[in-house]
Amino acid sequence: MPYKMIQVGAGGFGAEWCRDFLPPNVADGLVEVVAAVDVNPDALANAREGLGLREDQCYSDLDKAFAENPADFCTIVVPPAFHERVADAALAHDMHILSEKPIADTLEASVRIAAKVRAAGKKMGVTMSHRFDQDKTTLREELRSGRHGRLDYLVCRFTCDCRQFGSWGAFRHEIPDSLLIEGAVHHLDILADLADAEGDTLYAQTWNPPWGEFKGDSQALVTLSFGNGVRGFYEGAKTNAVGLNGWCEEYFRAECEGATLVLNTRRLERFAYDPTRQWAKGVEGGGETVPLIEQPKWANTWLIERFVRWLDGGPPMETNVEDNLQSVALVFAAVQSARTGQPVKVQELLEQTKKDMT
Questions:
Q1: Which 3 state secondary structure label does DSSP give 292?
Q2: What is the C-alpha to C-alpha distance for residues 248 and 295, in angstroms, rounded to an integer?
Q3: In what order do the strands lie in the sheet with 199-207?
Q4: pLDDT in tens, 23-65
Q5: Whole-prediction pTM value?
Q6: Angle, CA 25 vertex, CA 169 and CA 291 arms, to 5°
Q7: Are strands 31-37 and 58-59 parallel, antiparallel or unpaired?
Q8: Which domains does the chain have, with CATH numbers?
Q9: Which one of 59, 106, 250, 356 has the fewest beta carbons within 10 angstroms of its own beta carbon?
């Protein structure tokens, strides 16, 4: 029997949930969408068109929607500043939660939400969709296979031209630390996942060029180390003249003992170490192609299914709210480092925040 759910957020990225991510899982009998909520009544057209909801299943009032539609879980696909409000309402109505990233707009709110979910005995997953995209999953499996020896360091590049106001959603041009909160939250998470370790020390520089129409910083350079000794570097930009590696086409390079692995615009290639050669040179695009893993669902569509399997009694999502605090801690360590000009110990920041919240 499908799990009954309420979609909170039908405009912006919520439109993609209504059109693309939820319908395959409805068709598979995993979920039944019983209501949708959005503060903008016009956005609810996406729920009616994509999910086939009736007019009386679409709400502008969150509390009314929850009171009139018993459900097993809700989604949260609204700006991060409103996540805690929705999570509180969901827990008050005995619902599990599947939320878009980040958990919340501050580390303190993220820790509070995780504690509330734990106290209520509910399950909450966070859709770190890019980590579970086809190309990144293939790279992760290559690194986990051991075929390439030990991992030394990782590089990630994400660059876009979204300098004009509204080109990346108006609210992202207005919030503080927009690149870190809304962009690097994915990429730092992927780097930690590829490193297979928690963040240790992080140093970040962020800024906003004068030609960018952002109130918060839209560019970032981040260096970080992980608990197992792996190191990483992140270049993120939303205000460049042209996007070389935008959403879903990011550049990742993994330098391993036995090979260099390069993922660039969804193509993964391998350059093997040859001990018989010195000063060996490789040209990106000329390596051995690694086929991408094939399966029916990826990213958020796959994560919805994984969440349902967890509700069924299966293993917890890797991005359950407790574990996902690590991802949020990386982001806010970067925010703190950028503001203070000092490196930040990620685990100390997270543990101190938890202590301060008790």
A1: coil
A2: 17
A3: 288-289, 267-272, 259-264, 251-256, 151-159, 231-237, 219-226, 199-207, 344-345
A4: 999 999 999 999 999 999 999 999 999 999 999 999 999 999 9
A5: 0.94
A6: 80
A7: parallel
A8: 3-130+300-328 (3.40.50.720), 133-291 (3.30.360.10)
A9: 356
